[in-house]
Amino acid sequence: MVKRIAVDLHYFPNLEFFAAIADAEELIFFPEERYQRQSYFNRTQIRLANKTGTLSVPIQGRRPRLSLQKIKIDYTQNWAKIHLRGIQSAYGKAPFYEYYFPYFEKVFSQNTESLWDLNWDLLTICLKLLGMPVKMRVYNKDEDLSLMQDIRGQLVPSVPFSEREYYQPESYFQLFGLDFDPNLSILDLLFCEGPASKSIVLKSVKKH
Q1: CA–CA distance, 174 with 46 (Å, rounded to integer)
Q2: Global model pTM greater than 0.85
Q3: Domain assignments of the chain as residue spans, ordered by start
Q4: Residue 47 pLDDT greater than 80, yes or no
């Protein structure tokens, strides 16, 4: 039987996300669900020289009561250039930066209108670079949800990852300082560890 996981779509998901879906063969997404504030749908965390920094994608409208697929990015703010500059500042000296950065730079240059589409494109690239051959698709209303593992609404910024059952930090090389910073954006792992990233994700799956 195919291992399916119902999951939320995040912006440059963190390591807990990839640990949670590590054994999935299919990821099922739900574009018609309502947008929730204080979620990972439009934010991620990266490691800067002396702190952890948050990258947030601005969206149109205040507290929009819309489905996720209808959330539009606010391009009146120069967010794409800010994010690219932030990523460059954080990881420009990382071992695998020059190999992976062009993939993401290309997506940002497309000025994608929908945040859903942007996140979908970025996750597709991240899974490819990780070497995780999981399929991504949208939920079909005729499907039986009981036949898939449903982790929607669980991976949220307001609750520490240590209180959930998916991610156990596995340390790896990071730039800036000696203290390991767990559960950052997948960008941190990819730029710092390159082809070794997948094995580190697998080692970080919480044992039960």
Answers
A1: 11
A2: yes
A3: 4-203
A4: yes
